[in-house]
Specification:
Elements: H1 10-28, H2 37-47, H3 54-65, H4 70-91, E1 101-102, E2 105-106, H5 108-111, H6 114-133, H7 141-155, H8 160-170, H9 177-202, H10 211-234, H11 237-240, H12 246-250, H13 255-259, H14 261-278, H15 287-298
Helix pairs in contact: 1-3, 1-4, 2-6, 3-4, 3-9, 4-6, 4-9, 7-9, 8-9, 9-10, 10-14, 10-15, 14-15
């Protein structure tokens, strides 16, 4: 498949990438005519439809900077989204956040049952690395290996899962700003960084030349979490499609409790401006990544 031009607007880009990721999940998760049917239905319930697909779009937009064929970037983006979706399934379980609603519909353990939800998350985790390991993602085994290694590190105890473990300890704890920042860099920022990193890996960009993109991802990840804290405190549950006000009810320290609403909002704006500044070397080719940074600051869901 040839490289496709970036859509004219962020909305078009989101819709396009969301559609391509849904198609990839649909193809990978055909429901079998055997006792595994509910497992596949649960995976489809969580993975297909809904969500901003922010991480897949970040990956595809970064890969577009380096003229990566769209079919390759979408496969990697689907793998990354599989990790994100698995984490949401598990985070929503009664043993963790105990949520009933996700992306405007019942969480997987509510729509099915807890055992099926756990297995659906496990299978999406496995699917991510299966997709990255297959030849269709990239003909170079070294590229595929680097994609797998980077996503594994971003997903594990030094990344997303480690951040979730810290978050579980946050209830009733008095975390300082440095600890909250580290927690969020792991829980939320690691997969955002992995999305940008994967686009550069697919483009065969050497690690030493990825510094601007890493700076962009770092600042964007923190801005995303501050915006999420603001959304949790001030947002509309009907628009957000999930339960809000949870952090306050659980007594967790957040950027808002530590900085106050106005300082937190100003910090989010500063981080977005810094993220955009990192993209200066790429000129107009980075317009979509710039639009994504503005979206993170202004989103309502």
């Amino acid at each position: 498949m040839s490289v496709t031009a970036a859509p004219r607007s962020l909305g078009q880009a989101m819709a396009e990438v969301a559609g391509l990721v849904d198609e990839a999940f649909d193809a990978a998760l055909r429901v079998p005519d055997d006792p595994r049917a509910d497992l596949y239905r649960a995976m489809r319930h969580a993975a297909i439809g809904g969500g901003k697909r922010l991480r897949p779009l970040l990956l595809v937009a970064t890969a577009d900077l380096f003229d990566v064929p769209r079919d390759r970037s979408v496969r990697a983006a689907t793998a990354l989204e599989a990790i994100h979706v698995y984490s949401l399934i598990h985070d929503d379980l009664p043993a963790m956040d105990d949520d009933d609603l996700r992306r405007g519909k019942p969480t997987v353990h509510k729509a099915f049952d807890e055992a099926t939800a756990i297995l659906a998350g496990d299978c999406l985790h496995a699917l991510a690395f299966e997709l990255l390991a297959e030849d269709e993602t990239h003909p170079d085994t070294h590229v595929r290996a680097e994609l797998i290694l980077d996503l594994a590190r971003a997903s594990g105890p030094g990344g997303m899962a480690g951040g979730q473990a810290m978050d579980l300890k946050a209830e009733g704890s008095r975390f300082d700003l440095g600890t909250v920042t580290r927690l969020q860099q792991m829980k939320t920022g690691a997969l955002i960084t992995a999305a940008v990193e994967a686009g550069a890996i697919l483009g065969r960009i050497p690690p030493e030349q990825r510094t601007p993109l890493r700076g962009y991802a770092h600042d964007l990840g923190l801005a995303f979490q501050i915006a999420d804290d603001l959304l949790d405190a001030e947002g509309d549950e009907a628009v957000a499609g999930k339960k809000l006000r949870k952090d306050g009810e659980q007594g967790k320290e957040t950027f808002l409790t530590l900085l106050g609403v106005e300082r937190a909002r100003a910090q989010c704006g500063m981080l977005v401006a810094q993220a955009i500044e990192h993209l200066r070397p790429y000129g107009e080719r980075a317009d979509l990544l710039i639009a994504l940074a503005h979206f993170v600051e202004e989103r309502d869901r």
